[in-house]
Design goal:
alpha+beta, 15-stranded mixed beta sheet, globular
Length: 382
């Protein structure tokens, strides 16, 4: 997964469709007719629902096709999710807190403490780029299906090990290669366009403004994390484990989330919460919630809510900056409707560990972050 191999990589893909965050399973066999992302999601739910009346021993959860779908679900939700909003072009340590709301000024103070705790305020030289390698274990847990009369749990805790390589370069450029269970997901941004490639869905471009990779703000880049929360509000305090934390909230405004709509799928909200330890000033927990409504002719309105909560820890000093070296993310995908009592809830986990972090890699240039050629097709980039 080195840069030399990366530069030589070429894809010949069909016309792009917008990148769907969250569930994007390909339920068809290779070579069969492709469906839109939300038709695939509905088909996935119908498969889960069909298991409601079957015995656990006869369930397809133990089969190879089912394990493959579980892995694709994991990679679709936890592989390379994006933050809800773009990074703000604000210097936290230069902001004046006079004449601004108390909730916002409190957030500025908390972010300054966070930057100080991670060593970013005392560093005189900014890092131009970063190289990170790590290991992951992704686990697909059970799915709960409710019919209104009762709740049945399906599935087993099946897990897959993997690894990833992440490159980052200012401003706003990054490249991720993630391999889990023989499946490879490649994603990146050149600072203007965010894209993703999976073997089962091809190459997709993200709609709306350019947003950072969630993995980057999970303790890997404190300055990007602080920039993301630059316009946050302080909601108060909450205890995470044995630590009292300040809670900051930032949300995408209505105009921004509307840019991410695709066909019958309408993004209603995307909110991010950061929990900063009062004692150490470090980020200990990150949670975001993404709600989408799917309303197509002849079908009931269906809502999909994806929530990802990440515990962040094991901070270590790397060239004067504290970087989080391990954590655990728990994602829940909840499907419900307006008129029906039926709903489903699928839970999955990712345990991650950082093996190596290197700043200011010599020779890394913007050429490394060039998207695949078909991204630049003017008919597909809006």
């Amino acid at each position: 997964m080195g840069s030399r191999t990366r530069r030589k990589q070429r894809w010949c893909m069909p016309p792009l469709t917008p990148l769907m965050e969250g569930l994007d399973l390909e339920m068809q066999d290779e070579g069969s007719k492709k469906e839109s992302s939300w038709e695939i999601i509905r088909e996935w739910f119908r498969m889960q629902k069909s298991l409601h009346g079957s015995s656990f021993s006869d369930s397809v959860y133990g089969s190879i096709p089912s394990r493959r779908q579980d892995l694709r679900l994991l990679l679709g939700v936890l592989g390379c999710p994006l933050a809800p909003i773009p990074l703000a072009n604000l210097q936290i340590h230069h902001l004046r807190v006079k004449d601004i709301p108390f909730e916002t000024s409190s957030a500025y103070y908390i972010l300054r403490q966070y930057l100080a705790a991670t060593g970013c305020l005392k560093k005189q030289k900014c890092n131009k780029n970063m190289y990170t390698t790590g290991m992951v274990k992704m686990i697909c847990c059970e799915t709960e299906i409710s019919s209104g009369k009762g709740v049945k749990s399906l599935g087993t805790r099946s897990g897959e090990n993997g690894c990833f390589v992440l490159w980052q370069m200012t401003p706003g450029m990054w490249s991720l290669e993630l391999v889990v269970g023989g499946n490879k997901v490649v994603a990146g941004s050149n600072g203007k366009i965010v894209w993703r490639h999976t073997p089962w869905l091809g190459t997709h471009a993200a709609k709306g403004p350019q947003r950072p990779l969630r993995r980057i703000i999970q303790g890997l880049d404190p300055k990007s994390t602080a920039s993301l929360f630059a316009k946050a509000q302080c909601l108060g305090e909450k205890r995470i484990g044995e630590d009292d934390c300040f809670v900051l909230k930032v949300a995408a405004d209505r105009a921004v989330v509307m840019e991410r709509n695709e066909g019958p799928a309408e993004v209603l909200r995307h909110v991010l919460y950061g929990y900063f330890c009062q004692r150490s000033g470090l980020l200990l927990y990150l949670e975001d919630s993404h709600l989408t409504r799917v309303q197509s002719p002849g079908n009931d309105t269906v809502y999909w809510e994806t929530t990802i909560g990440s515990s962040i820890g094991d901070y270590r000093d790397i060239d004067g900056t504290l970087i989080a070296h391990q954590g655990k993310s728990i994602a829940t995908v909840f499907r419900f409707g307006d008129m029906s009592l039926q709903h489903s809830r699928t839970r999955m986990e990712e345990i991650w560990r950082i093996d190596d972090v290197v700043f200011d890699v010599p020779g890394l240039s913007i050429d490394y972050f060039i998207p695949p050629a078909d991204i630049f097709d003017s008919e597909n980039i809006q």
